[in-house]
Amino acid sequence: MKELTIEDIKEALSKANHPEINYNLLELGMIRDIRLNNSDVQITLAVPYLYIPIREDLINIIKESIAKNEIENRVDVEVVEMNNEEKETFMRMAQKGWKF
Q1: pTM for the predicted model, two decimal places
Q2: Could you tell me the residue range of the domain that residue 82 belongs to?
Q3: With the CA atoms of 25, 83, 85 and 37 taken in that order, what torsion angle do they form, in degrees rounded to the nearest 10?
Q4: What is the tens place of the pLDDT at every residue in 12-61?
């Protein structure tokens, strides 16, 4: 059995599309960090504001994207707020890729 790598996780997350914006979470800069710790995958999700309404949806999208790629490791998602530079980049991309 092949050992899981960060690249495997990134590949899975490249299919984790934002529900309201035509980009995936990696492209939007929302995946700040990915760590492997034994059989656990730890992901830091950066959001523009800590209490956005789709927070749980984003966490589920991450977990489902990883599970769809037959990665059976436990996934923990830590949610943090974006810094000002990250927010500016995110907002520009969101405006350009808004689905509605």
Answers
A1: 0.91
A2: 6-97
A3: -50
A4: 999 999 999 999 999 999 999 999 988 799 999 999 999 999 999 999 99
